[in-house]
């Protein structure tokens, strides 16, 4: 008896499941939900919906719909609250057939009307063609008749002219009518084809796909809520800045820290809490398995930097003439790309691929450490700061409730507004440009890490240019430019050049003059930069600064980092009246000494 009752119960359950699987789309009841918060990462976003559950207690299956097209299917997970236990969350898609019978009837009527119009136009064209043929026959008959009458001397000139005029006008009228009818025929055929295409789409019944979250919960009696979370693609953000300096040097620089958000998920985010993060969301709960790092003996090849077999410098990790820092940067970028692919693979539940990409990224990092010298690693720090690091992530919680509709263009939001104390000065590099630029040294004494991004620069309300902000940690100093100042001018002249032979060496002497003019009303501080040839790798060439009326800068950082590279810097103060003939003058002289048999082959920069 018990077995019979059990089989009957299972049969009823199977019937219920079968009936539920065959239910019409219109009978599916969705549970009310709304997006309450979103965390936007650099390439994805985590969306959190608050779902209101029905009052019924016990096991309940609820449907949250529609989810956006950009949903990552494997990323769904739900969080219960007091008295609510989530047993399962899954993603599904279903085809939606809309009731479009009225639309189909309208399209059928349109098609029939176009078909009748085609028939009428085709009949008119045929009639015009027959009339044209008749006019042609009439012209032939008239020609033969005129020839006969002329031979007999019976030609009536007035009747002849009238007949010729009739033939000409008839042909012109019929030709125009034929052209218009053929144009109408083409238009009608195009409309007919379009209506047939629409009918084909509508008659199929299935015009869209809905995406649902199906959640099974066990709850106590009473209304409750749970949170549904899922990742979406087609969402990202990047930092932007607006910096406003003032003509009065003592006033602070206003920094508007902005975020340009891309939101093309297909789902509008209305009245939500928004978080911006540089972290990468990971759904894997365990670390990747560490694989063996195989090392082979043979010609060194930098992965992704060149073709195997080409000459390389093992000690410097060079690839056939490429610079060390370029190779280093390329390795860094490739490693970051692989780590991103690893995270994406884990989010798609492809653990094997995720572990593979993580091990490949680590192999690139260790390849760099093995083959790049310590000096080159230190040197690389100068450009590595401009690259997003793999260090601690940065998270910004924006104030208030925000709305971000799904659309094709970027949407700009304000993260915060900062005031920084500047130290303004001017910089002239006459060997590169005749313009003098206004710069400001500042320190990030706020609680925000400033990420690398594009910056738009203003002086008061005037736009002065654009630049790129570096990565600025809390407490770190940085420098930004505020454009060209037309009231300062600089020029560089070669005054003299001599070549002499001393013993077995040749000595080339250069004399230069730099002129700095000011048309400002107040004195200003200017850094003036120039350079001498530098031949660190060639001991047969020596360059020496032999004479200079102005003393080089004593700034400790310049003396330590730039002066050994033969970069010259003078820190001068320019008065308002120093212009034209009274321009501030910087004269200097240097010599190059090299073997008399050595010829300078080329110049380059790095």
Please tell me about this protein's structure.
This protein is of the alpha+beta class and 606 residues long. Among the domains are: 101-204; 280-392, no CATH class; 423-595, no CATH class. The chain has helices at residues 2-21, 101-152, 157-204, 324-347, 351-371, 374-384, 556-562, and strands at 33-40, 45-53, 58-64, 77-79, 84-97, 206-219, 224-232, 235-245, 253-263, 269-277, 312-313, 318-319, 395-397, 402-404, 411-420, 423-428, 435-443, 453-459, 462-469, 477-502, 505-518, 524-531, 541-548, 567-574, 584-595. The strands form 5 sheets. Strands 23-25-21-20-17-16-22-24 form an 8-stranded mixed beta sheet, with no helix packed on it.
Q: Describe the biggest sheet?
A: 8 strands, mixed
Beta-strand residue percentage: 35-45%
Q: What Rg, in angstroms, do the CA atoms define? A: 40 Å
Number of strands: 25
Overall mean pLDDT = 80
Uncertain residue ranges: 1-26, 302-322, 382-391
- The neighbouring-strand order within the major sheet is 23-25-21-20-17-16-22-24
Structure classification:
alpha+beta
| Distance from first to last alpha carbon | 91 Å
Q: How would the global form be characterised?
A: flat
What is the count of DSSP helices, taking H or I runs of 4+ residues? 7
What keywords describe this structure?
606 residues; alpha+beta; eight-stranded mixed beta sheet; 7 helices; flat; disordered N terminus
What's this entry about, in short?
It contains seven helices and 25 strands. The protein is of the alpha+beta class and 606 residues long.
């Amino acid at each position: 008896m018990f077995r019979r009752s059990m089989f009957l119960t299972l049969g009823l359950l199977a019937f219920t499941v079968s009936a539920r699987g065959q239910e019409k789309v219109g009978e599916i009841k969705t549970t009310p939900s709304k997006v309450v918060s979103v965390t936007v990462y650099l390439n994805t976003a985590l969306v959190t919906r608050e779902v209101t559950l029905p009052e019924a207690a016990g096991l309940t299956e609820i449907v949250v719909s529609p989810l956006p097209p950009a949903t990552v299917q494997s990323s769904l997970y739900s969080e219960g609250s007091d008295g609510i236990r989530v047993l399962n969350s899954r993603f599904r898609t279903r085809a939606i057939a809309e009731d479009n019978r009225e639309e189909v009837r309208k399209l059928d009527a349109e098609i029939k009307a176009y078909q009748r119009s085609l028939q009428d136009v085709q009949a008119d064209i045929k009639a015009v063609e027959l009339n044209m043929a008749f006019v042609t026959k009439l012209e032939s008959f008239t020609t033969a008749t005129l020839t006969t009458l002329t031979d007999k001397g019976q030609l009536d000139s007035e009747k002849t002219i009238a007949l010729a005029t009739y033939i000409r006008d008839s042909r012109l009228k019929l030709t125009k009518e034929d052209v218009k009818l053929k144009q109408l025929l083409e238009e009608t055929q195009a409309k007919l084809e379009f209506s047939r295409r629409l009918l084909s789409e509508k008659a199929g019944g299935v015009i869209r796909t809905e995406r649902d979250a199906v959640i099974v919960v066990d709850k106590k009696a009473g209304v409750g809520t749970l949170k549904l979370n899922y990742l979406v693609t087609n969402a990202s953000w990047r930092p932007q800045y607006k910096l406003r300096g003032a003509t009065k040097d003592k006033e602070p620089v206003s920094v508007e820290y902005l975020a340009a958000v891309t939101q093309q998920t297909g789902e509008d985010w209305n009245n939500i809490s928004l978080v911006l993060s540089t972290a990468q969301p990971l759904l894997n709960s365990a670390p990747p398995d560490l694989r063996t790092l195989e090392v082979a003996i043979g010609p060194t090849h930098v992965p992704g930097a060149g073709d195997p077999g080409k000459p390389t410098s093992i000690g410097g990790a060079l690839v056939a003439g490429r610079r060390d820092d370029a190779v280093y940067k390329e390795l860094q970028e490739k490693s970051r790309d692989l780590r991103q692919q690893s995270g994406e693979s884990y989010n798609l539940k492809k653990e094997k691929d995720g572990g593979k990409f993580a091990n490949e990224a680590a192999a690139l990092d260790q390849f760099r450490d093995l083959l790049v010298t310590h000096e080159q690693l230190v040197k690389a720090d100068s450009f590595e700061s401009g690259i997003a690091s793999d260090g601690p992530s940065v998270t910004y919680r924006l104030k208030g409730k925000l709305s971000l509709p799904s659309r094709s263009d970027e949407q700009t939001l304000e993260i915060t507004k900062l005031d920084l104390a500047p130290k303004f000065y001017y910089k002239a590099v006459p060997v590169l440009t005749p313009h003098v630029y206004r710069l400001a040294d500042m320190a990030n004494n706020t609680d925000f890490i400033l990420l690398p991004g594009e910056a738009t620069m203003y002086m008061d309300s005037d736009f002065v240019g654009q630049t790129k902000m570096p990565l600025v940690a809390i407490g770190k100093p940085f420098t930004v430019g505020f454009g060209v100042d037309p009231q300062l001018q600089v020029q560089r002249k070669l005054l003299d050049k001599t070549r002499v032979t001393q013993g077995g060496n040749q000595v080339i002497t250069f004399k230069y003059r730099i002129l700095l003019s000011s048309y400002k009303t107040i004195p200003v501080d200017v850094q003036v930069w120039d350079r001498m040839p530098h031949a660190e790798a060639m001991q047969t060439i020596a360059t020496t600064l032999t004479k200079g009326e102005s003393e080089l800068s004593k700034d400790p950082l310049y003396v330590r980092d730039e002066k050994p590279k033969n970069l010259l810097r003078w820190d001068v103060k320019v008065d308002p009246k120093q212009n034209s003939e009274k321009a501030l003058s910087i004269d200097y002289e240097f010599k190059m000494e090299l073997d008399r048999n050595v010829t300078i082959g080329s110049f380059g920069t790095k």
